[in-house]
Amino acid sequence: KAPIGSKIKIFSSGKLWGYQQLYIGYGFASGQIPVGHFGVGDLKKVDLEVTLPGGARKREINIPVNRLIEF
User: Fold this and answer.
1) Going along the chain, which residue ranges are E strands?
2) Which of 18, 28, 34, 46 has its CA 20 to 30 A from that of 64?
3) Can you state the percent helix, strand and coil of the chain, rounding each to 5?
């Protein structure tokens, strides 16, 4: 099941660093893969919170950056 509509938040030192909501279409006859991508500068680790369309939340703490995380 694709995570369309999922909300992704990343935190550093307890502060919100980034937010995205996953969509697949942005214009006529277009679509993108439902992947969130964040640029985090010099950060080494982040906390991640994903809220699925049904309201369930998943959270991961101290994730090293520069990697693919799948839920």
Assistant:
1) 7-12, 15-21, 45-51, 57-64
2) 34
3) 0, 40, 60
Task: Report the distance separating Cα 9 and Cα 51, nearest Å.
Answer: 9
Q: How many CB atoms lie within 10 A of CB 46?
A: 21
Round to whole Å and give the CA distance between 22 and 34: 6
Place of tokens 């080494």: 44
Nearest to 2 by CA among 20, 23, 29, 30: 23
pTM of the model: 0.81
Give how far the C-alpha of residue 29 lies from the chain's centroid of Cα atoms, to the nearest Å. Answer: 24
Sign of the alpha-carbon torsion through 59, 60, 62, 67: negative
